[in-house]
C-alpha cells in the first residue's frame, strides 16, 4: 500500500542545467588541481588558517561561492565535492551541502497536482498546529483500556525529530548563505489549516487551495485581512480588548466549523468516513467499547491521510501559476499507508521513486500480546 511520496518523482536536470553544472564543476576542479600542485611543488599545506591563511581564505570563499552557484542552479552537488574541500579536509560548507542533499527535489507543479486531485491545501507550516498533529499519532492510551489498537508514542517522536532535523538543516543552509531564504510549507488535508494561526502570525505567506475549494478560498481571502486588522488593534489597545476578543473568538469558531464541514464534504473523505462508520456500527454489535475507540481513531487518522512537508525559496508565491516551475525540497512525508485502490480512484499513478525513502516515515501497525478482560492473553494490533 502506498503513501503520497510514492506518486512523486525527483526532478531531473534539463540539458541547459547539465551544461551549466559542468561549467561550475570544471571551475571547482581547477581550484583543487591548483592547490594540489602548489602543495606538492613547495611542500606546503594551504588552508584558511595558519601560515597561508590569507590565500587559503580566498580559495575557501571562492570554492564555497562556486558550490553555492552550482547548488542553486541544479539543486545537487557531485559526491566528490561533498566528502572533502579543495584543501583535502572537509569544511563546514561540505557538511551543510551534504545535509541538504538528504532531501530530494521535486517540481512544485507535482505538489499542486496532488493538492488539486485530493482537494488538499498547501499552507505555510506556521499556519498549522504541528505539535497537535504529531501528538494525534500517539493514539489511545493503553493504560486506560485493556484491549486496544493504538499508535505508539515512538512514532510521534520519530516524525517530530525528522521534522526538527529538516527545519534545522534549512535554517543552517540559509544562515550560511548556502541556499536562498526558505519558507516551509505543508501539503495536507484542509483539516490541518488553522485560520487563527494565520491571523496571529507575524509573517504572512501565500497559500494554495485546491480548485475544488475555490469558494472557501475566496471567503478566506475576504475574511482573513479583516480579522488580521482586528487582531492588530486588539494587540495594541487595551480598551475594549475583552469585547473584541469575544467577537474574534466567535468569528473563528464559525470559521473553524465551516472548514470542518467543507473537509467532510470532500468526496474521498465522505466515502472513507462512510466506510469507517459502517465498521463502527458493526463493532457496536460484535465488540466492546475499547474496539469502538479503535475504529474512531482509525477514522481520524485516515482522514488526515499523508501530509508532505517541504521548503521553497521565499520569493516563490505558491498561490500563483508561475510557481509551478519552482523547486521544492521534500523534508518529510508521514502517516499511514492507504489502499492503492483509493489513489487509483483519484486518477493517480504510482512511481515508487526510492530516493524518497529517506524522507518517508510510514505508520506501521505492530502485533503484541496484551491482557483481555477475561484475563487471557490474545493478539492485538498496535
Would you write up a description of this structure?
With 382 residues, this protein is of the alpha+beta class. It contains twelve helices and nine strands. Strands 1, 2, 3, 4, 5, 6 and 7 form a seven-stranded mixed β-sheet that branches. Strands 8-9 form a two-stranded antiparallel sheet. Strand 8 (367-371) and strand 9 (377-381) form a beta hairpin. Residues 140-150, 292-303 and 367-382 have low confidence and may be disordered.
Keywords:
382 residues, globular, 9 strands, 12 helices, alpha+beta
Give a nutshell description of this structure.
By secondary structure, this protein is α+β, with helices and mostly antiparallel strands. The chain contains twelve helices and nine strands.
Major sheet, described briefly?
Answer: 7 strands, mixed
Q: How many strands appear in the DSSP assignment?
A: 9
Put simply, the count of helices is: 12
> pLDDT average, as an integer?
79
**What is the percentage of strand-forming residues?**
5-15%
By secondary-structure content and strand pairing, the structural class works out as alpha+beta
Amino acid at each position: 500500500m502506498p503513501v503520497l511520496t510514492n506518486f512523486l518523482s525527483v526532478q531531473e536536470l534539463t540539458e541547459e542545467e547539465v551544461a551549466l553544472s559542468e561549467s561550475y564543476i570544471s571551475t571547482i576542479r581547477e581550484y583543487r588541481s591548483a592547490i594540489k600542485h602548489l602543495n606538492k611543488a613547495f611542500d606546503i599545506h594551504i588552508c584558511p588558517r595558519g601560515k597561508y591563511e590569507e590565500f587559503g581564505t580566498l580559495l575557501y570563499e571562492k570554492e564555497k561561492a562556486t558550490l553555492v552557484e552550482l547548488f542553486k542552479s541544479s539543486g545537487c552537488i557531485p559526491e566528490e565535492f561533498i566528502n572533502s574541500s579543495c584543501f583535502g579536509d572537509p569544511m563546514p560548507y561540505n557538511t551543510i551541502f551534504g545535509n541538504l542533499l538528504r532531501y530530494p527535489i521535486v517540481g512544485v507543479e507535482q505538489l499542486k497536482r496532488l493538492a488539486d486531485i485530493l482537494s488538499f491545501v498547501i499552507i505555510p507550516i506556521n499556519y498549522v498546529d504541528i505539535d497537535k498533529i504529531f501528538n494525534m499519532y500517539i493514539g489511545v492510551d493503553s493504560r486506560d483500556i485493556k484491549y486496544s489498537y493504538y499508535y505508539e508514542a515512538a512514532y510521534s517522536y520519530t516524525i517530530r525529530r525528522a521534522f526538527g532535523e529538516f527545519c534545522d538543516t534549512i535554517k543552517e543552509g540559509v544562515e550560511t548563505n548556502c541556499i536562498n531564504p526558505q519558507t516551509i510549507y505543508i501539503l495536507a488535508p484542509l483539516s490541518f489549516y488553522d485560520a487563527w494561526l494565520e491571523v496571529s502570525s507575524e509573517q504572512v505567506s501565500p497559500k494554495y487551495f485546491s480548485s475544488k475549494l475555490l469558494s472557501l478560498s475566496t471567503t478566506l481571502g475576504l475574511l482573513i485581512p479583516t480579522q488580521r486588522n482586528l487582531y492588530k488593534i486588539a494587540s495594541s489597545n487595551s480598551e475594549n480588548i475583552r469585547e473584541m476578543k469575544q467577537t474574534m473568538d466567535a468569528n473563528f469558531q464559525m470559521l473553524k466549523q465551516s472548514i470542518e464541514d467543507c473537509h467532510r464534504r470532500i468526496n474521498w473523505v465522505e466515502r472513507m468516513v462512510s466506510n469507517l462508520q459502517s465498521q463502527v456500527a458493526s463493532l457496536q454489535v460484535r465488540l466492546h467499547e475499547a474496539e469502538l475507540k479503535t475504529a474512531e481513531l482509525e477514522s481520524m487518522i485516515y482522514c488526515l491521510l499523508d501530509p508532505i512537508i517541504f521548503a521553497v525559496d521565499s520569493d516563490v508565491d505558491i498561490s500563483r501559476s508561475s510557481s509551478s516551475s519552482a523547486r521544492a525540497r521534500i523534508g518529510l512525508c508521514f502517516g499511514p499507508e492507504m489502499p492503492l485502490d483509493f489513489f487509483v480512484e483519484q486518477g493517480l499513478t504510482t512511481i515508487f521513486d526510492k530516493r524518497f525513502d529517506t524522507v518517508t516515515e510510514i505508520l506501521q501497525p505492530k502485533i503484541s500480546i496484551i491482557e483481555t478482560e477475561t484475563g487471557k492473553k490474545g493478539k492485538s494490533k498496535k
